[in-house]
Amino acid sequence: MSLLGVARPKLSRDLKSGIIRAARATNAVKPFARDGQVSVPSFFDGWLVSELPLHVAAASTLATLRMVRRGALKTWSGRAAIALNTVSSLRLLQIHRNASGAGDVLHDALVDELGADFATRVDPALQYPSVAFPMTRLIQPLPTTRRGLLAEENISYGEHGRRNRLDVWRSPDLPNDAKAPVLLQVHGGAWMIGNKEQQAMPLMTQLAQHGWVCVTINYRLSPRATWPDHIVDVKRAIAWTKANIERFGGDPNFIAITGGSAGGHLSSLAALTPNDARFQPGFEDVDTTVQAAVPIYGVYDFTNRDQTGRGDMKAMLQDRVFKTKLADDRDAWEAASTMSHVHAVAPPFFVIHGTNDSLVPVEQARSFATMLRKESSQSVVFAELPGAQHAFDVFWSPRTHATVHAIEQFLNVVRTEAGQLAR
Fold first, then answer.
1. Which residue of the set 390, 393, 397, 401 is catalytic?
2. pLDDT per residue over 365-411, tens digit each?
3. All domains of the chain, ordered by start, with CATH?
């Protein structure tokens, strides 16, 4: 009852679910928050909805049909619920259409940096036609090809047990003397969670099927690990790859490194700090140079020097990763920041970030790419993907399909210009 003694209408279960569906679609179009505590649930739900909008729309349609069968059209709340579900489904279809346009955005980014003729400059042996997004992946968006391409798993590359193990992917048909290009994948997870089996499966699947050797690694995680343990392990993995990848048919002279989120940070930092003794204790003389880097939705600065980072990240980093305060240990925080290492002899970079990222602001990726372009003598491609959330490439979605193709095109341009052609 209200204060005036008039009963307020009670929301039906159908209307409540309609409101929730409308809120989820709205959050997928524009996240409710990109900073603070609300950004985390905003990410998780927006991530699923924005990358699997047709699946969510199908569920909404089935729910609407059940409502109609139960007589929802006879009540105002039922009609309101059906209207909300219908509007939500239309928004989800628009999200799908926008995601399907990612290929144009990525192509424009490649043209902007590499020139309109970039595709024709690729050696013919490396040219793979763009393939339409297959319906089978729409129905089954989770990658399932790992076992068919896994050459060897849980190989030790360091002394820290399961956190220093890696897997090698390659096509079963790849000759052992192929001298194939190599991709090293670094998983994300806020430097505290994650493992080598969880991320970049679509990218590694496509590259392995097209003659690459892929290496995906674990590394030590906080809070047990303390910075710079994480980057030391990445450098050790690079050193292992250079020393051992030939027995899998890989070419130690062409290694590209990639990763998302914390992996985007670690891969970009590794690419810009080859042979840096601070990050190679005990193996200072080992070459850790890579030939290309593709960081995706990465973190590029821990000091927030230009205010493009999250305002609430510092507390987490000082408590769990560095275990020191920025004010007391600025040199270490600076050295850990990719932005601190921008220089003229950086390898070619392809920086990718989503505009809807609720965990890592796209503005920081934009700032990093701008800094790198001013200093580097090599190509720096930067693509902002409209509507993409953090970790968008976990699923085989139309956006991921386009991103994987664009990354392969970029790497093949780099290979051609470096003289690293398929053998």
1. 390
2. 999 999 999 999 999 999 999 999 999 999 999 999 999 999 999 99
3. 13-99 (no CATH), 101-418 (3.40.50.1820)
